[in-house]
Give the backbone structure.
Amino acid sequence: MKRPFESITETFSNSLERVRENQIKNFENAEKLLVWIVGFSIGGISIIFSNLTTINQSYCYCDIRIILYSLCISIISGFFFRWSFFKMQLYYQQIEFFLEGAFSNTEAMMETNPQDLSNVNEINEIIRKLKSDYDLDYNYVLETFENYDEINQEIIKKNLKSKYKIAGDNVKREYDFSMDYVQNVYSNAFGISKEKVQKLLNKSPSKLFRRYSKLSDILFIICCLSFLFAIIYLVVLY
C-alpha cells in the first residue's frame, strides 16, 4: 500500500493530463464558435458596404452605424480573445511545469539550507537529520554509542555534526552550480542576460495567468454579446 503523501501527489499528477486535455477541448470549442461569429460579422460588414445605397433606403444612417459598430466590436474582441488566450496558455504551461515537477518527485530534494546543529545535543536527533536531509544512515553508531565515556560521546557527536555540515555545503554548491548552469543555458538560448533569466525563473506566473484568464472570458462574452446584439437589433428593425 502507498503512503498518503505518495497517493495524493500521484492522484494530482495524473489529473494534470486530464486538465490539459480539457483545456485544449475548451479552446477548440470556443475557437470554432468565434470563427463562425467573426466570419459572419465580417460577412455582414461586407454586405452592408456593398449594398449601402439599397440599405439606406430601408434603414436610417444611425441604425446602420449601430449595427456596424456592434459587428466591429465582435471582430476586434474575437481577435483579442485569441491573443489573450494564447498568453494565458503560455503562463499556464509554466504553472503546469511547476506542478508536474512538484507532484512527480515524491522524494524531496536534499536540503540546500542545512540547519545549524551546534546546539543539538541529542545523538538521535543528529542522526535523524543526517538521514532526512541527506539520506546518510548512521544508525549503526547508536549500537555502541552508550559504551563510550562522555568525552568520546561528544567527539562522536561533533564528528557527525561535521559530516552534516560537509554534506550540506556540498549540496548547496551543487544546487548553486545547477542553477547557474540553467541560467547560462537560458541566456544563450534566448540571447538575454543572466539577470533577466533569473527574474523570469523567480517570477510567479499565477497572477498573470489569472489576469489573462479573466480577460479571455470578458473578451469572449463581449464578442458573443455584440454579435447577438447586432442580430437582435436587425430583427427588431425588420
The chain is about 85% helix and 0% strand.
